[in-house]
Amino acid sequence: MGLRQLLPYQQNMESISKAGLDVILRTPKTCDLPQIKECDRGTIEPNILDVNYSSWVVSFTSLKNFTQKHIDFCHCDIAQMKHPSALSKFDRMMTAAKGRKIVVFLDYDGTLSPIVDDPDRAFMSDAMRSAVSEVARYFPTAIISGRCRDKVYEFVQLTDVYYAGSHGMDIMAPLRHLKNNDGKYQTRAVDKKGNEVVLFQPAQDFLPAIQEILKVLEEKTKRIQGVVIENNRFCISVHFRRVCKEVMEIRPSIKWDKGYALEYLLDTLGFGSSGDVLPLYIGDDRTDEDAFKVIESRGEGYSIIVSSIPKDTRASYSLRDPSEVKSFLLRLARWKTKLFY
Ligand SMILES: O=P(O)(O)OC[C@H]1O[C@H](O[C@H]2O[C@H](CO)[C@@H](O)[C@H](O)[C@H]2O)[C@H](O)[C@@H](O)[C@@H]1O
Questions:
Q1: Whose alpha carbon is nearest atom 27 of ligand 1?
Q2: Quick one: 289 and 334 in the same domain?
Q3: Is the residue at 222 inside a domain?
Q4: What CATH number did the domain enclosing 303 receive?
Q5: What is the rounded CA–CA span in Å between residue 275 and residue 252?
């Protein structure tokens, strides 16, 4: 069954857009895509697949090791060969970061937790939790997720991390650097540790419309097996995993995304005017590209895509999967401790 059958009603779509909401169809996450079927060139030998990935991560200098046949086969163009592994380039990255303040930003699904069929069971391993906790000991660390902020906290359970949910439309940030005239979408709250914080929710006005659409979607899809509707507070995910492997997102059509959230957090963490800050963002999804773009336009910082297959990205570096993310985070924390001794 396809999307049209599930949400067929032109009328619904019209009311969604009248309410000022966008409907975005997201392709499945990386690991949903069986690598072999992704290529339309017939049977692929496993080692060739590996060459495909390698040629995406290699730098120009290693390019001479690949024959033209490999390059043609893999559809690799020069522009794609710019995402070296953040693990293999770690020393170089950190040499350039010396004396700068690194602020770490992490996506959740597909970055800190593996992609699984049931969105409610995307648990993070204890090992990953302690890696994130280590990093947060030494660097300001924030998680920016498409999920509802409370849900991400439920999974992560770390109090020394800042959280932004709904693709950055629901940010809990420290109060200390807040300017009085920072706008109407900010309210004071208290975090899990009892500290006064600020909640920045630029899509607040859309909440009634989102709730209305949520009710309609739940009603219309309740008899369709395999559809999971996720209430992410300021946006809705409709998972069709067992129906047609698609995820539809409904979100307010406002100029706000993970990139804006990154900048907002840098500001409220006190790095707004600091010239020596280096944002480091790790994410695997199309929505993370907005944050990569911000890092690219700042001209400083590190953007790292998590992907085990080549894909179009603005990120400068890559990691294959959450287990490489964990290794990278541990290395980052250790690097910082070495600087102290
Ligand atoms: O920004 P993120 O933290 O990456 O969140 C984006 C979406 O992630 C979740 O969906 C994805 O992960 C699920 C669990 O592994 C998987 O079942 C689904 O197919 C993926 O699309 C989450 O469920 C969504 O609400 C988030 O928007």
A1: 146
A2: yes
A3: no
A4: 3.40.50.1000
A5: 33
272-324 pLDDT, tens digit per residue, is 877 799 999 999 999 999 999 999 999 999 999 999 999 899 999 999 999 99
Six-digit token string for 109: 């699904």
CB-based contact 110:30 (threshold 8 Å): yes
Structural domain boundaries, residue 66:
41-82
Mutate to test the pocket of ligand 1, among 121, 125, 230, 247 (most ligand atoms within 8 A of CB): 247
Residue 133 lies in a domain: yes
Q: Cite the DSSP H helix spans in 58-171.
A: 68-73, 90-97, 126-138, 149-156
d(CA 230, CA 218): 10
Q: Is the complex ipTM higher than 0.95? A: yes
Largest interatomic CA distance in the chain = 65
DSSP assignment string, 252-311: E-SS--HHHHHHHHHIIIIITT-TTEEEEEEE-SGGGHHHHHHHHHHT-SEEEEE-SS--
Domain annotation covers residue 127: yes
Domain presence at residue 184: yes
Number of the ligand 1 atom closest to the C-alpha atom of 143: 3
- Ligand 1 within 6 A of CB of 232: yes
Which region holds residue 145: left if phi is over 0, alpha if psi is between -120 and 50, else beta? beta
Residues of the chain with pLDDT under 70: 1-13, 27-56, 58-81, 177-183, 242-243, 245, 339-341
pLDDT at 299: 93
Residue 243 Cβ contacting ligand 1 at under 6 Å:
no
Residues sharing a CB contact under 8 Å with residue 197, sequence separation 6 or more, in sequence order: 172, 173, 174, 175, 188, 189, 190, 191
The number of distinct structural domains making up the chain is 2
230 Cβ closer than 6 Å to some ligand 1 atom:
yes
Any ligand 1 atom below 6 A from CB of 141:
no
